[in-house]
């Protein structure tokens, strides 16, 4: 951030606190560090991913590169970084790699809230368009009528879900052939905003994810897991939430 802008914000905050009779006991500043960029020349990427990444002329951040490298190696990935650090790009590239190598693959993208899922839907569409893939992006949440949902499962390769609709509709319809056909093709599961899975919602979601893992195991279906959160420390129980 520009130093003059930061100084203005700092002075403005001080005036605000003084106006409500608060006293500033002290200030603590964290020194800025220069951004460090890395190329992807040593990673074998599809032409679609290269097309998406061509606008990043300086390269990408190390955590993005390592996430992409591990996703390509069919490993589960967990990214825990600050806000606006480029987590989305990493799982977009991972998804594009899966879709490039397996055109019939399905990507399950799970967001904790409908509003967030709707916001991210346009970002998925934009990324896939820039990659040059002809892939349909769909969304199934509580605002989508049940009559439309099976068509979305069949016709979309990237589908955005909320945990609620997975529990209340998707997993309650396992006797439906269209639901089973979809689950058999799931190649990558993206779980975003994991830091918001706390309290009762977090506990219920943990059971939900275990049910998903159990179903995939029973079906003999293999998939990769891509988990993202916005804090600097990974909780000790995160592996329990997504383990067998």
What structural keywords apply?
244 residues, alpha/beta, 6-stranded parallel sheet, globular
Structural description of this entry:
The protein is 49% helix and 12% strand. The chain has 244 residues and is an alpha/beta fold. A six-stranded parallel sheet has the order 1-6-5-2-4-3, sandwiched between helices. Helix 6 (146-155) links the parallel strand 3 and strand 4 (158-161). The radius of gyration is 21 Å and the shape is globular. Residues 238-244 have low confidence and may be disordered.
Ordered list of secondary-structure elements with their pairings:
Blueprint: H1 3-19, H2 47-53, H3 62-72, E1 77-80, H4 87-101, E2 106-110, H5 114-131, E3 137-140, H6 146-155, E4 158-161, H7 163-170, H8 177-184, E5 186-191, H9 199-219, E6 224-229, H10 238-242
Helix pairs in contact: 2-4, 2-5, 3-4
């Amino acid at each position: 951030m520009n130093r003059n802008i930061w100084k203005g914000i700092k002075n403005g905050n001080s005036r605000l606190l003084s106006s409500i009779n608060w006293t500033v006991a002290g200030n603590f500043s964290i020194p800025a560090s220069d951004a460090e960029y890395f190329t992807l020349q040593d990673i074998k990427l599809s032409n679609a991913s290269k097309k998406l990444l061509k606008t990043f002329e300086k390269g990408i951040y190390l955590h993005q590169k390592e996430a992409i490298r591990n996703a390509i190696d069919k490993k589960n990935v967990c990214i825990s970084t600050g806000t606006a650090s480029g987590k989305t790009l990493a799982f977009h590239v991972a998804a594009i790699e899966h879709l490039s190598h397996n055109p019939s693959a399905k990507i399950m993208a799970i967001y904790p809230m409908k509003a967030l899922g709707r916001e991210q839907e346009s970002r998925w569409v934009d990324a896939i368009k820039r990659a040059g893939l002809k892939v349909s992006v769909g969304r199934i949440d509580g605002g989508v009528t049940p009559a439309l949902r099976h068509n979305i499962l069949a016709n979309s390769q990237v589908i955005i879900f909320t945990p609620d609709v997975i529990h209340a509709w998707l997993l309650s319809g396992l006797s439906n052939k269209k639901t089973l056909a979809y689950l058999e093709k799931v190649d990558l599961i993206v779980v975003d905003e994991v830091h918001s899975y706390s309290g009762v919602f977090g506990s219920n979601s943990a059971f939900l994810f275990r049910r998903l893992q159990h179903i995939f195991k029973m079906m003999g279906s293999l998939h990769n897991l891509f988990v993202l959160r916005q804090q600097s420390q990974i909780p000790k129980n995160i592996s329990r939430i997504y383990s067998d």
